[in-house]
Amino acid sequence: MSQSDDSDKAKKTDAEWRAELTPEQYQVLRRKGTERAFSGAYWKTHGGDATYLCAGCGTELFSSEAKFDSGTGWPSFTAPVEGGAVATETDSSHGMLRTEVTCGRCGGHLGHLFDDGPAPTGQRYCINSISLKAKPGK
Asked: What is the pTM of this model?
């Protein structure tokens, strides 16, 4: 799927999002909340083959091959599955300047991007578990 094609974008009303997501998913994906560190389903999941999908729209976002243990308490990845799977924008909330990571299809808040990751990218996509659904296999 081409992430840049606007016809592929998931467009729903706020009421539709509220009806489809759990309250916790809604708070993170649609209201830009954050789950507590070390509390999500995937922060300590390592090994095995999986593709991590957006919990809001099902878009493939990250591969288990790019997942690593950052010690932060959130799932961390070195890169998304493809260039348009995620989008980034400047986040100046909470008195900090960060790079927010969103789903390239539905715009759901996933987490933040930092430049302190391992090789090969040097980047750390720090993602909320509740924003993801793991699909076994590749």
From this structure: 0.89
